[in-house]
Write a structure and sequence with these properties.
single chain, 333 residues, alpha+beta, Fructose-1,6-Bisphosphatase, Chain A, domain 1, D-Maltodextrin-Binding Protein, domain 2, 2 domains, eight-stranded mixed sheet, five-stranded mixed sheet, 8 helices, globular, binds 2,5-anhydro-1,6-di-O-phosphono-D-glucitol, binds manganese (II) ion
Length: 333
């Protein structure tokens, strides 16, 4: 088997399609290297005294785990000095982190969820890192939070890393989706699948069923029809999978199809949903669409939403095209 490293993949993409500017290439390599570093910490677990809480809260009022904080620091430090970024934003930081002026300012903006699936850290279940890349538009000097408030369709790249039985990196630069697996002996990311496709149909859904009593009618109807199985209106049996780490649930869907829902619910009616638009929903929507799937908030395409704030939340329905279409139509009805 010809082994294609991430570096070679990026160089060849650049040569063949010419759509990866050098700063973007550096950015991807730096993020991928930071993810290796995070993977090492995740793997150490109790041996590195890395489990458990950091006894602090993030801007969204969630208690931070030690690994949330460490992963955030790793990504910041790795990305500060390269000259490829103007600023970064993260689930774990209240406001944006501008590249210090001792370093050159680049043209990109990076957003990340440093560790997705925090509640699974201590129980040794797959977790991950999600990232989204935007261009800084306009030529104004300096950078502000407003520069980040671009719809997801303007992403230059997006990806995620899963720290599971294997450590894998999924990447899109807007020309399909590629999967890399970390070779622990050589420390390199090896291309293990290119042009991934999500099947249009599926018999698998992913939703936190414990919230069922709070759902809106279209979600209740959609899931009830799935669980009614062969005897119901869908005429087929569905299976349910819910890891509780969005990265792992989305990765399963990318690998074999499925539909993932994190809908609005009545618990907190003013919140559109639980997941964050800019560093969870947008990058996943970009990847899913690039693999032939679909991603909506139940009404509109996620990547069309113009954010009004950095930590904005959104309802999410994504995955196999025909199922997302159906669930979205139920909302319109
Ligand atoms: P994070 O760990 O980054 O805060 O994200 C957790 C998210 C997501 O990964 C998952 O799909 C969802 O929260 C699960 O939440 P509930 O267990 O509250 O349903
Ligand atoms: Mn998350
Ligand atoms: Mn997180």
């Amino acid at each position: 088997m010809k082994r294609v490293s991430l570096t070679r993949y990026l160089v060849e993409q650049q040569r063949e399609h010419g759509h990866i500017p050098p700063q973007l290439r550096l950015l991807i390599e730096v993020v991928a290297r930071a993810c290796k570093h995070i993977a090492i910490s995740v793997n150490k677990g109790a041996l590195g005294e890395l489990l458990g809480t950091a006894h602090t809260e993030n801007v969204q009022g969630e208690v931070q785990k030690k690994l949330d904080v460490i992963s955030n620091e790793v990504l910041i430090e790795a990305n500060e000095w390269g000259g490829h970024l103007a600023a970064m934003a993260s689930e774990e930081m209240d406001s944006i982190h501008v590249v210090p002026n001792r370093y050159p300012q680049g043209e990109y903006l990076l957003l990340f969820d440093p560790l997705d699936g925090s509640s699974n850290i201590d129980v040794n279940v797959s977790i991950g890192t999600i990232f989204s890349v935007l261009r800084k538009v306009g030529h104004a000097r300096g950078v502000s939070e407003e520069d980040f408030l671009q719809p997801g369709k303007q992403q230059a790249a997006a990806g995620y890393c899963v720290y599971g039985p294997q450590t894998t990196l999924v990447l899109t630069l807007g020309d399909g989706v590629a999967l890399f697996t970390l070779d622990r002996e050589t420390g390199s990311w090896v291309l293990t699948e290119d042009q991934m496709r999500i099947p249009e149909d599926t018999k698998e859904f992913a939703i936190n069923m414990s919230n069922a009593r709070h759902w809106a009618e279209p979600v209740t109807r959609y899931i009830a029809e799935c669980t009614a199985g062969k005897e119901g209106p869908r005429g087929k049996d569905f299976n349910m999978r819910w890891v509780g780490s969005m990265v792992a649930d989305v990765h399963r869907i990318l690998a074999r199809g499925g539909v993932f829902l994190y809908p609005w619910d009545r618990r907190d009616p003013d919140k559109p949903g639980k997941l964050r638009l800019m560093y969870e929903a947008n990058p996943m929507a970009f990847i899913v669409e690039q693999a032939g799937g679909m991603a909506t908030d139940g009404r509109q395409r996620i990547m069309d939403i113009v954010p009004t704030k950095l930590h904005e939340r959104v309802a999410v329905v994504l995955g196999s095209r025909n199922e997302v279409q159906r669930a979205t139509e139920y909302h319109a009805g």
